[in-house]
Automatic annotation (TrEMBL):
Its main location: membrane. One of its GO terms (cellular component) is mitochondrion. InterPro entries: DHBP_synth_RibB-like_a/b_dom, Sua5-like_dom, TC-AMP_synthase_SUA5. PROSITE patterns: YRDC. Residues 46-231 form the YrdC-like domain. Keywords: Cell membrane, Cytoplasm, Membrane, Mitochondrion, Transferase, Transit peptide. This is Threonylcarbamoyl-AMP synthase. Interacts with RSC1A1. It holds the Pfam family Sua5_yciO_yrdC. GO terms for biological process: regulation of translational fidelity. The lineage of its organism: Eukaryota, Metazoa, Ecdysozoa, Nematoda, Chromadorea. It is a peripheral membrane protein. It catalyses: L-threonine + hydrogencarbonate + ATP = L-threonylcarbamoyladenylate + diphosphate + H2O.
Length: 284
């Protein structure tokens, strides 16, 4: 009797697994949670934006194309779902999508002029600032800094416009620690079943720069920027770490000959001072 019961239980588990797999394959095959974007169809685009906003408000996770990679996002009060989905270490912070550059200093300490932020946004950069007390304390716990993004991606920006007073947590659409950065929805197919809505904007880029992600510009402390932002940073008197180190080395190299010359002069004076009494004695 016990053996038959155990066998029945095993059979039920097997049926459950098969049914779950069948539904997953059906879901992937029909694309029931995938919305294909068409930039030329304004009505369909607007509906997709509305559906995405509704999904976020209901606590869902959506996958979206940005100007660098595909990302996952949810409202910050539900950011624990992103950690679970990505198997991401709790100590690894998430970024934030915002609607406008001026929103940065609503949640971060002001350390640079507004003009700098507006010059860099929107674009493929993540700006790092020290968080202010207005940012919810349960978001990125134990981390003093926070990264902000306004990608040059129409769909993400439209979502943010419809959620002007809600913060959207964001990260890349992949399992934490994997080498593949996603530039199309097929790159994160193993996560489809855990994502409530997938916005398919096609392949983002098709070159060697595609999978590099956004350039991180740390404006909370002296940091560095890649070439695409470094010219703008120079306009505001900011320098990269490499530039600062190079200037220190150059300054040191300039000072070194001066020190050596000074030491030589001191040695000559000391020798002259030592020789002079002997000559005076000889003259007497």
């Amino acid at each position: 009797m016990l053996k038959r019961s155990l066998q029945y239980f095993v059979d039920l588990r097997g049926i459950y697994k098969l049914e779950k797999l069948r539904l997953r394959r059906k879901r992937m095959g029909t694309g029931s949670n995938i919305v294909k974007l068409n930039p030329l169809d304004n009505a369909a685009w607007f509906k997709a934006v509305q559906d995405a906003v509704k999904c976020l408000k209901s606590g869902g996770i959506i996958a979206v194309p940005t100007d660098t990679l595909y990302g996952l996002c949810t409202l910050i009060e539900n950011s624990d779902r992103l950690y679970k989905l990505k198997k991401r270490p709790n100590g690894k912070p998430l970024g934030i999508f915002i609607n406008d550059g001026e929103d940065v200093f609503s949640y971060a300490e002001r350390s640079v002029p507004n003009g700098l932020v507006k010059s860099l946004f929107p674009g493929p950069v993540t700006l790092i600032f020290n968080r202010s007390e207005k940012l919810p304390s349960n978001f990125n716990c134990g981390t003093q800094s926070v990264g902000f993004r306004i990608p040059q991606a129409r769909f993400v920006r439209d979502i943010c416009r419809f959620l002007p007073y809600r913060l959207i947590a964001q990260t890349s659409a992949n399992v934490s620690g994997t080498d593949l950065n996603p530039i199309c929805i097929e790159d994160f197919q193993e996560l489809w079943d855990e994502i409530d809505m997938i916005i398919d904007g096609g392949t983002i880029l098709e070159n060697n720069m595609s999978r590099l992600g956004s350039t991180v510009v740390d404006l909370s402390l002296p940091g560095h920027a890649e070439q695409e932002t470094i010219n703008t940073l120079h306009e505001y008197g900011l320098k990269s770490v490499d530039e600062i180190q190079r200037e220190k080395i150059e300054a040191k190299d300039k000072i070194k000959p001066m020190i050596e010359n000074e030491e030589e002069r001191n040695n000559e004076i000391e020798e002259m001072s030592t020789d002079r009494p002997e000559r005076l004695v000889g003259n007497n």
